[in-house]
Amino acid sequence: MKYELENDYIELYKLLKILDLVDSGGQAKMLIAEGYVNRNGEVEERKRAKIVSGDVIEIADVKIEVV
After folding, report:
1. What is the SS3 assignment for 59?
2. Which of 15, 66, 60, 55 is nearest to 34 (CA)?
3. How far apart are CA 42 and CA 20, in angstroms?
């Protein structure tokens, strides 16, 4: 799956919510805090991490390429 940035970056929890991978921002924050989200191959636990073009986010079996 690809996500095209509209600005310079998007916060990680907002990205998960926009792509309908979670039902709410709270659920997104919980998944991130519990270590279920990888960014560029490493666990990302910062809910407001700035995701930029070129980042690859993985959650469960979903891979998101940010362009």
Report:
1. strand
2. 60
3. 22
